[in-house]
Amino acid sequence: MLGPVILAASRSDRMRRLVSAAPVTKQVVDRFIPGENVDEIVPIVRDLTDRGLELTMDVVGEDITTPEQAEAARDAYLELIDRLRPLDLGTRAEMSVKLSMFGQALDGGHELALRNVRPVVEAAAAIGTTVTLDAEDHTTLDSMFAIHEELRKDFPQTGCVIQAYLFRTEADARRLAAAGSRVRLVKGAYKEPAEVAYQQKHEIDKAYVRILKTLMEGDGYPMIGSHDPRLISIAQELAHRAGRKLDEYEFQMLYGIRGEEHLRLAAEGHRMRVYTAYGTDWYGYFMRRLAEKPANLRFFARSMVTKG
After folding, report:
1. Is residue 134 annotated as part of the catalytic site, yes or no?
2. Is 210 in the active site?
3. pTM check: above 0.85
4. Torsion angle defined by CA atoms of residues 288, 293, 296 and 302, in that order, rounded to the nearest 10 degrees
5. Which residues are part of a known binding site for FAD?
6. pLDDT of 30
């Protein structure tokens, strides 16, 4: 399987230099990351929302090695929120944050990440929207869930992400499927050992359906993070069986993948949120997009051959 190889490459400085130097890379990266700064991303926000879509915004960058870099990440989100304010979009444009960007892996990282993310959550609430905490590798999750629980004391709309390939996630889903919670379910995009995660696609897919059933039958707000047509169809059926209305759950997909499906679901009355990343530190995010779906890797390889 190429996925684990690509995920390993996402942490390689040598591969970072090689991929970044390839002449075609920017053209391909632009498919998934439509801007490098807030000036470039605001028109994208306007365009997508004008077309009936909703967004969750991610300022890319995870390789934080100093508290100053973590503070800079915080400030980048605060700038984004300030620029979204006059658009008056409310929850149609929310934020997704990785706590690694806020210093979670540094000394005293749990407290540092909480201290840096809280102003972002406060600022988002001030413009009528919210923040979802992205899940990262399994070693970070206890800290992420603790921060999520702490933030929800003052900002109960704060969401979190759970990953179907981890063995622990079925128990996490049962705990989180409570009134007022917002939970995004994804398959998972980090290289995890067999001791903690399913390794085969069919096992992950079956776990995804079991967990999604728990979320749909619970009292929270499920967010279905998948591009898989079969899982999208299953999600619709599970929502129907649970008696959920169209505004009681939502679909989420990545910018640059299955754009026509985004519009189709929105036209049918579903809440369809596009995960839209921007920034200059795109390498880790980009490599995980390649690892998640073979078609993405083929697209990149074909571009390297024809345009390189």
Report:
1. yes
2. no
3. yes
4. 120
5. 163, 187-189, 201, 226-227
6. 74
